[in-house]
């Protein structure tokens, strides 16, 4: 299994916006079909973009099962939690459902020490056999997985294979590569960081928000990096920058769902506390989307 290329951090479509509007399973199937048609490398289900904090454990399992049933690519299940036992249980369930890998977010809110992080991820690694990709996103979690902790985990547990890196810091990227070595997988966690991470730090692709909207563009963009065509990738990165920027004009996944709905891709509503963006942001989204059509 080659964990490289463009993986879509897919949205979870809901039938309207509210505290517990149901998942639209038919809309989800069609979104997966759209991704497959555009040669996406794989799907990350139940990640931040999939509004995983608002899903019940039962819904979480059903979404992963639906992804396995309807996606032709690699399925990476977002099964992280700030509770170790929850992360273990969800990872075991995802492995049983056939998921090819697990994405493990840095525990949020309770702000563990680096030793606590090592034990947390170690417990998950011991519970399952599928590859584990750590998810370093301090802007969401208030904690960084230190590069030395990543290296320690990779050395101790053979199934800890890499990181979705979303710190936005080149200093951190350099430290990860130096601490973890060339074999340690790095996937960009921000569309806008993909070019620099692939060119300068040997990243193998991206877990993308933008590919929900334009998967073909993002596959072609990432393929340039995998082929070492960095001059061409740099030009494409400049062309895609307005898209990358506007999709974070509000909290993810609000803009990407709004954009998808504008283009007729039925992303549905939101689970509170996520809700629709304002009209000024919609106007900016429409303007940017039109330039790529």
Architecture overview:
By secondary structure, this protein is α/β, with parallel strands linked by helices. Helices cover 47% and strands 13% of the residues. Helix 7 links the parallel strand 6 and strand 7. The chain is globular.
Give the secondary structure arrangement, pairings included.
Blueprint: E1 5-9, H1 25-37, E2 42-45, H2 57-70, E3 74-78, H3 84-97, E4 101-105, H4 114-127, E5 132-136, H5 138-141, H6 147-156, E6 160-165, H7 170-180, E7 185-188, H8 194-201, E8 205-208, H9 215-226, H10 230-246, H11 254-262, H12 279-290
Parallel strand pairs: 1-2, 1-8, 2-3, 3-4, 4-5, 5-6, 6-7
Number of domains: 1
Cα gyration radius (Å)? 18 Å
The secondary-structure element order is EHEHEHEHEHHEHEHEHHHH
Mean pLDDT: 97
Question: What are its keywords?
Answer:
293 residues; alpha/beta; TIM Barrel; globular
Short overview:
With 293 residues, the chain is an alpha/beta fold.
């Amino acid at each position: 299994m080659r964990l490289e290329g463009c993986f879509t951090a897919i949205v979870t479509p809901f039938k309207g916006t509210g505290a517990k509007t149901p998942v639209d399973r038919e809309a989800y199937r069609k979104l997966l079909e759209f991704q497959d048609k555009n040669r996406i490398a794989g799907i990350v289900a139940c990640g931040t973009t999939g509004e995983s904090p608002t899903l019940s454990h039962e819904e979480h399992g059903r979404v992963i099962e639906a992804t396995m049933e309807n996606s032709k690519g690699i399925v990476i299940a977002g099964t992280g939690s700030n509770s170790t036992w929850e992360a273990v249980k969800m990872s075991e369930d995802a492995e049983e459902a056939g998921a090819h890998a697990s994405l493990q977010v840095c525990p949020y809110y309770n702000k563990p020490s680096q030793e606590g992080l090592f034990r947390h991820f170690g417990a998950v690694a011991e519970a399952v056999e599928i590859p584990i990709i750590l998810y370093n996103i301090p802007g969401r979690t208030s904690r960084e997985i230190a590069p030395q902790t990543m290296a320690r985990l990779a050395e101790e547990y053979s199934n800890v294979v890499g990181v979705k890196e979303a710190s936005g810091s080149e200093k951190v990227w350099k430290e990860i590569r130096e601490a973890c070595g060339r074999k340690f997988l790095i996937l960009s966690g921000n569309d806008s960081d993909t070019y620099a991470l692939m060119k300068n730090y040997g990243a193998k692709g991206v877990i993308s928000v933008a590919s929900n909207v334009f998967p073909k563009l993002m596959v072609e963009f990432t393929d340039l990096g995998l082929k070492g065509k960095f001059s061409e990738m740099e030009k494409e990165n400049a062309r895609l920058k307005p898209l990358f920027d506007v999709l974070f004009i509000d909290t993810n996944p609000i803009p990407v769902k709004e954009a998808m709905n504008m283009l007729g891709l039925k992303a549905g509503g939101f689970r509170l506390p996520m809700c629709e963006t304002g009209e000024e942001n919609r106007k900016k989204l429409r303007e940017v989307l039109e330039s790529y059509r």
